Amino acid sequence: MSTRRRVLALARKDWHELARNPQAIAPLIVVPLLLVVLLPAGVILFGANPALTSTVTGLQSFLDHLPEGMLPAGLDPSQTIVYAVVVYFLAPLFLVIPVMVASVTAASSFVGEKERRTVEGLLYTPLTDRELVFGKVLAAMLPAVGIAWASFLVYAVLVNVLGGPLLGGIFFPTWTWAIIVVLLVPLVAFLATALIVMVSGRATTMQGAQGIAVLVVLPVVAIVVGQATGLLLFDVGIALAAAAVLALLDLAVFGFVVRSVSRERIVTRL
């Protein structure tokens, strides 16, 4: 069997295990629903209500510090809120989706095999350590990217259907969002997955393995805080810079994970 077939066989096995776990599936539905349906729909439908800006943490500060020239000319206050939130404010928050999905799927990799008492059989397969790690990363990364891309399609249709009449036509997506979806989502998903797989090889519970996802979420939180305080705006330049940094991090982290995950260490922690 070729390397590609061995890796895909391992990934398919993990997908079948994930599909049989309702506790893992639930957050994969709830979080995207909140970020790409409920939150943008609320902003578009109630954008003119002052209670909205006081309810969403950091939104009023973000609107106050939004640089001039970032919005189309001639928008009234309600249109300004809708455009600014849909195009800019929610952009970095969207990256929470692949991180969250990866944290759920990747945490069940090695540690999930331990809990199901199937890890010993896995470790004695013909897979090399690199193939074993790549198969586990792939099994968690692909659902994370797929759910994020599906969420983006739902988000794009929703904001254009609800917000288009208010803003005079289709206004989404923008180039920043194109970079987020095409580049940042796979890169963030890979990084989160690789880190969690590494921890999963050492952890004894899935909750402990999922804790490493916080390290990937922190930069996203930093961007949100930066937007709210006016220090930076998540635009095309920031998105491209983030993609370049993440690509380098992905390569470095994957190499480190392959070196750190060994059959002997996993067996001794059973």
From TrEMBL:
The keyword Metal-binding is assigned to this record: no
Record keyword Translocase present: no
Pfam families per the UniProt record, alphabetical: ABC2_membrane_2
GO molecular function: ABC-type transporter activity
Annotated transmembrane regions: 25-48, 81-111, 132-155, 175-199, 211-232, 238-258
GO CC entries: plasma membrane
Record key words, sorted: Membrane, Transmembrane, Transmembrane helix
Entry protein name: ABC transporter permease subunit
Source species of the chain: Agromyces seonyuensis
